[in-house]
UniProtKB/TrEMBL annotation:
It comes from the Bacteria. GO terms for cellular component: outer membrane-bounded periplasmic space. Keywords: Hydrolase, Signal. Coiled coil: none annotated. The keyword RNA-binding does not apply. It comes from Paenibacillus solani. This is N-acetylmuramoyl-L-alanine amidase. Residues 348-455 form the MurNAc-LAA domain. Residues 1-23 form the signal peptide.
Length: 461
């Protein structure tokens, strides 16, 4: 890298997507982790024979990758960690860490700007890329953060066999083991059902309105005043995910049942009038288990100035413990109070065997150096209310970017039998986040926020 003497340069990269014919400037939208990226003024997005081009400014500023440009050799490099992608203008062969790989389109020059294929680049850099042809939007999803060994692929995916809306309920017939994540969104009001580890069955299209090429379809609903239409699409391929959206006429509560009982039928019932509340404990006091992530020989992620995640997690957890100990209606149990190591299954086992009411695992994130902000993870549908309650308070207390409440397949929140959340308070890989996270006053505020979130969720004084 160094020998080329690279300098940052405006490079425009292209997004390959199917079935678009027009060839000039193009109005594609780009989303990273659900947030739309604002393109700087004067930046032209271009569609080149089925390929959308966007500025590398987006890649360096929003995705945080290092971009190099050698004018003499017309060579573009994109680098992050140990991953190096090298491309040359006019050459469809790219070099990935020394290996030659063919791209759909060669990089091209437009005036003073170089264009390279974004789908190719993004996927090589570990991002998931999805093109929504209806919305003309590119969705990039970063997969950094906690290592996620259980991510499912298509090979063993369950199938969605059929969909029907009847008696104000959506019924989804499923074969195999899929996970349904259901959430309510506004503007416009809709209920989103993500069937994780599921794809459409081969016969789905013969019984439903379905575009076999774009893998999507919809039907309108009449006779039910709450609902306009039901849409469905293959939303992601890693993990294989079918997304079903119920378009509502107004905000509407719902209840989810099925799948867990092995019936193969997911029911989203709009006749429900209120959200479920946590069941009261037997002892009177609610039991909260606080888990400081990592420990001992497992440092977690290393920060921008090499501070260790395990130390942040423990400091944070001890502050939460101290505050919870003062609560008359809450009992607190820690998975660790010193720099020791526990297996993930031991952490879950502690909470499960104590029949805790709430489990909270405290972590800090890592990613490209520009990535910043707070994320809160749930696994089970029943974890979501807790995650929402915690996230709202934590975001306010940390004062970093709100990266949202997210589904995450983490062992400790998957295997725990009570509502659980995994908190990623900020990015240690980001210098500003790191200094905030290790600031004692910030930690105090976050600890108070976590306690407020717990109390709100448990409805205790
Ligand atoms: Zn961690």
């Amino acid at each position: 890298m160094k020998k080329f003497g690279f300098f940052m340069f405006l490079v425009v990269i292209m997004i390959a997507f199917p079935k678009v014919a027009d060839a000039s400037s193009y109005n594609a939208k780009i989303y990273l982790d659900g947030q739309q990226i604002n393109l700087s003024s004067g930046v032209k997005v271009e569609n080149n024979n089925g390929t959308v081009m966007v500025p590398i400014r987006v890649v360096s500023e929003n995705l945080g990758f290092n971009v190099g440009w050698n004018k003499a050799t017309k060579t573009v490099t994109v680098q992050d960690g140990s991953q190096n992608v090298t491309m040359v203008v006019g050459n469809r062969l790219a070099d990935i860490n020394g290996q030659s790989v063919q791209m759909t389109n060669a990089p091209v020059l437009r005036g003073g700007t170089t264009l390279v294929p974004i789908r190719f680049v993004s996927e090589q850099m570990g991002l998931q890329v999805r093109w929504d042809n209806a919305q003309k939007a590119v969705y990039l999803t970063s997969t950094y953060g906690e290592f996620n060994p259980d991510e499912t692929t298509g090979s063993n995916a369950a199938t969605v066999d059929g969909l029907v809306f009847d008696e104000n309920r959506l019924l989804v017939a499923v074969t195999g083991n899929a996970k349904a994540n259901v959430s309510k969104l506004s503007n416009p009001n809709r209920i989103v059902i993500d069937m994780v580890n599921a794809k459409f069955s081969d016969t789905f299209g013969s019984n439903n309105n379905f575009d076999e090429i774009n893998k999507n379809g919809q039907f309108s609903v009449s006779g039910y005043p709450d609902v306009q239409a039901v849409r469905y699409s293959l939303y992601d391929t890693n993990p294989m995910t079918v997304r079903i959206v119920i378009d509502l006429n107004h905000a509407q509560n719902y209840a989810v049942s099925g799948l867990e009982d092995g019936s193969g039928l997911l029911v989203v019932d709009l006749n429900a009038t209120s959200d479920p509340v946590p069941s009261p404990g037997t002892s009177g006091k609610k039991l909260v288990v606080i888990d400081a992530g990592h420990g001992a020989h497992d440092p977690g992620t290393l920060g921008a100035t090499k501070k260790k995640e395990k130390d942040f997690n423990l400091a944070m957890a001890l502050k939460v413990e101290k505050l919870l100990a003062k609560e008359k209606n809450i009992e607190v149990v820690m998975t660790r109070t010193t720099d020791t190591f526990l297996e993930l299954k031991e952490r879950a086992k502690i909470a499960n065997s104590l029949k805790a009411d709430v489990f909270i695992s405290i972590h800090a994130n890592s990613g490209p150096s520009t990535a910043s902000g707070t994320e809160t993870y749930y696994y089970h549908e029943s974890d979501k209310a807790l995650a929402n309650a915690l996230h709202k308070e934590i975001v306010k207390a940390v004062g970093l970017k709100d990266r949202g409440v997210r589904f995450g397949n983490f062992h400790v929140i998957r295997e725990t039998t009570m509502p659980g959340s995994l908190l990623e308070i900020g990015f240690l890989s980001n210098k500003n986040d790191e200094s905030k996270l290790f600031d004692s006053a910030t930690q105090d505020r976050v600890a108070e926020a976590i306690v407020r979130g717990i109390k709100t969720y448990l409805k205790v004084d």
